[in-house]
Amino acid sequence: MTLIEAIREAIGEALNSALLVEVIYATYTSEGLVTDVSQPPIPLKKVDIPPVLTQQGITADCPEVQGGKLTIKTPLADGDRVAVIAHHKRQRFSILYKV
Q1: What is the pTM of this model?
Q2: Rounded distance between C-alpha atoms, residue 8 and residue 26, angstroms
Q3: Which position has the higher pLDDT, 12 or 76?
Q4: Which of 15, 21, 62, 77 sits between 20 and 30 A of 88, alpha carbons compared?
Q5: Among candidate residues 97, 93, 99, 96, the one with its CA nearest the CA of residue 32
């Protein structure tokens, strides 16, 4: 490998690692995410789901309500459409919000 080839390869790897994230739309199921393109479903073990979209929800201090705490949760149900960020060369996915 020449010096020029090594530099080209290093620059190519740097550009590939700096690619912007990709936003895709998918349908949530209890087994994973089904994308709009003809690909196999994305298993949930590869998907990060924000707490507000789970049964756990997000708890906030709110002195105006009885008990002083307010829990916000809008859990995902089968068939919900979601916006998803694909990152780490499509090895990891993060749900942004329900569409």
Answers
A1: 0.70
A2: 36
A3: 76
A4: 77
A5: 93
